[in-house]
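Retro notes (design track)

What went well: tokenization of the new backbones is finally stable.
What didn't: we kept losing track of which sequence belonged to which structure.
Fix going forward: every design gets posted as structure first, then sequence, in one message. First example under the new rule, 79 residues:
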């Protein structure tokens, strides 16, 4: 059975600030800010990306955020 695509719901968004930095948010919560060279590279890559590619770029830019191996708050029973 195939896993559902977590980026299909378009959870990431970004905003360019006056100072040239870029704020990346996940479900409306700020996650990271790109400044300087990182912001320039991101802007260049975003220019040619489709919506799915844009979501992937923002996910990558957040770094170690949401690997998929986070615990859901429940302890698993050991056998």
């Amino acid at each position: 059975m195939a896993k559902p695509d977590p980026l299909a719901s378009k959870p990431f968004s970004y905003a360019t600030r006056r100072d040239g930095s870029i704020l990346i948010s996940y479900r409306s919560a700020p996650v990271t800010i790109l400044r300087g060279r990182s912001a320039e590279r991101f802007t260049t890559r975003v220019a040619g990306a489709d919506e799915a590619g844009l979501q992937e770029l923002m996910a990558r830019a957040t770094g170690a955020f949401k690997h998929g191996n986070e615990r859901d708050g429940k302890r698993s029973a050991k056998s």
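Added context from the reviewer: Residues 36-47 form the longest helix (12 residues).
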